[in-house]
Write a structure and sequence with these properties.
DHS-like_NAD/FAD-binding_dom; transferase; globular; six-stranded parallel beta sheet; Acetolactate synthase; THDP-binding; single chain; alpha/beta
Length: 540
């Protein structure tokens, strides 16, 4: 028998949200969405508030990414929604199933100039899978359920609904749709077999696994395929940690050697974008494995591109019945390059320099981060080093802004991570530039007793811009920040704690104090502005 629900619009929405596994609400207070707050409060549904709407959406995205279920942000009308657009866009590029519910000025006097009256849909439609205005209370459960199903259907992504005042404040009575998990997409078996044959017949194959491997719960299938076919694996995004660093087929440092020498490059669950040379790997043939046909690359022509449920495709690779070329020599060659690079990294991470080199910060972090720590990157230059020196030990423990590259994710991601995993370390790696976007939301963390550790690499510049601009023009402008700024004092003023570190030898005790503090704690590390991440430009 179909369940029916009745109540005001907020209660109708909450019933549908709960049916789809939504467990918390992130928001910034706004009168247009009061009924959603009333529903949450009276039902004991967890509600977390922030100081800027972008943080609410980023918190919802962190929940979605870490837990592989919908995350929810509730934004008031007008500027509430527009302040969340960067978060929506990041979720769109990251394929994160985020639902944003927006308030909306009353429809019955639309065009009269109500407070915060604007049509949100033209703004959010390009960066969502679905955007809709729900005009009647009775239609809210249907709309919320359909939107969440769309968000969870591969290729996953954010969805948006807004409610005019009279719809969300009105009382309604409606059927509650059953929450049904999207059916897996079956890839073309011939395309799967073609891809598996290319990998098995290759002499120097490489797998690059990205975020959709984790989002699609395909980590075990990836390991099985790599082991069955004896293929070295590199990872990016939330694919990091899919194979633990100790696994004989897990590689991180030998990527240049691998991609310059490979004859088949298998890219699984990540786009062929600027992070992967736009899919140009010289003479190597490319196998692009995606979770939906819409994700097939259009700017290159792969040798094969199976599209569908990644677990099923990777399991088929593992069970490939044909002959397989021996890859032991290739794996050994990459292991030699990997070990040599690790030795160089170890030297850099132990450097006793003044000012402190970013590599040394990560050398110390490697000693204190637990295997299941949630590590969050929010920055450019400083966080680029994190990708180089930190090796997540488990899948689902690394959060970065993704290919959209939006700064300001840090505090929202930290909130979502702490709510999702109250018993783990949560560490935000933040450039001093990125600190300007969201550091005020430390107050939200303090007030709601959500402790995290924030490590700021403070070099007083926009590192990924200053050095390339100097190389291009012989000068730089708009690339300097206040040197030595006391971001730790900002956190202290907001109710947290922190300290500034100027000497490499003081890093370890500072980090130990931070993780033992039980409050939001910022370690402000003064790093060398001349030590820029080794790439000429971030404009590609």
């Amino acid at each position: 028998m179909t369940e029916r629900v009745e109540g005001h619009g907020g209660q109708l929405a909450l019933a549908a949200l709960r049916a789809h596994g939504v467990r918390e609400m992130f928001t910034l207070s706004g009168g247009h969405v009061f009924p959603l707050y009333d529903a949450a409060h009276t039902a004991g549904f967890p509600l977390y508030d922030v100081r800027h709407e972008q943080s609410a959406v980023f918190a919802a995205e962190a929940v979605a990414k870490l837990n592989r279920r919908p995350g929810l942000a509730v934004l008031t009308a007008g500027p509430g929604v527009t302040n969340g657009v960067s978060g929506l866009t990041s979720a769109f590029f990251n394929a994160s199933p985020v639902l944003v519910l927006g308030g909306r000025a009353p429809q019955f006097r639309w065009g009269s100039g109500s407070l915060q009256e604007m049509d949100h849909l033209p703004l959010v439609a390009p960066v969502t899978k679905h955007a809709e205005t729900v005009f009647g209370a009775d239609d809210i459960p249907r709309a919320v359920s359909a939107a969440l199903t769309t968000a969870l259907t591969p290729h996953r992504g954010p969805v948006f609904l807004d409610f005019p005042l009279e719809a969300i404040f009105s009382v309604g009575d409606a059927a509650l749709p059953e929450a049904v998990a999207p059916a897996p997409i079956e890839a073309d078996p011939e395309e799967v077999a073609r891809a598996a044959g290319l990998i098995a017949a290759a002499h120097r194959p490489v797998i690059i696994a990205g975020s959709d491997v984790y989002a699609g719960d395909a980590v075990d299938a990836l390991r099985a395929a790599a082991e069955a076919l004896r293929v070295p694996v590199f990872t990016n995004g939330m694919g990091r940690g899919a194979l633990p660093p100790s696994h004989p087929l897990a590689f991180a440092k030998a990527r240049r050697v691998a991609l310059s020498g490979a004859d088949v490059v298998v890219v699984v669950g990540t786009p062929l974008d600027f992070r992967l040379a736009f899919g140009d790997f010289g003479d190597a043939r490319v196998v692009h494995v995606v979770d939906a046909p819409s994700q097939r690359a259009t700017h290159v022509t792969p040798a094969a591109s199976p599209a569908g449920d990644l677990r099923l495709i990777l399991t088929a690779f593992a069970e490939h019945p044909g002959d397989r070329v021996d890859h032991d020599d290739w794996v050994a060659r990459l292991r030699e390059a990997e070990d040599a690079a690790k030795a160089r990294d170890a030297e850099a991470m132990a450097a006793e320099t003044d000012p402190i080199r970013p590599a040394r910060v990560y050398g110390e972090l490697r000693r204190v981060l637990a295997p299941d720590a949630i590590t969050i990157g929010d920055g450019g230059d400083f966080v680029s080093y994190a990708g180089k020196y930190l090796e997540p030990a488990q899948p689902g423990t690394w959060l970065d802004p993704g290919p959209y590259g939006c700064l300001g994710t840090g505090m929202g991601y930290a909130m979502g991570a702490r709510v999702s995993h109250p018993d783990r370390q949560v560490c935000v790696l933040m450039g001093d530039g990125a600190a300007g976007f969201s550091l005020m939301d430390v107050e939200s963390l303090v007030r709601q007793k959500l402790p995290v550790v924030i490590v700021v690499g403070n070099n007083g510049i926009w590192g990924l811009e200053k050095h390339p601009m100097r190389a291009m023009y012989g000068y730089d402008v708009a690339a300097d920040l206040q040197p030595g700024l006391r971001y730790d004092k900002v956190v202290e003023a907001l109710g947290g704690a922190g300290e500034t570190v100027e000497k490499a030898g003081d890093l370890a005790p500072a980090l130990e104090r931070a993780f033992a503090s039980g409050v939001p704690y910022l370690v402000n590390v003064l790093t060398d502005p001349a030590d820029a991440y080794p790439r000429s430009s971030n404009l590609a």
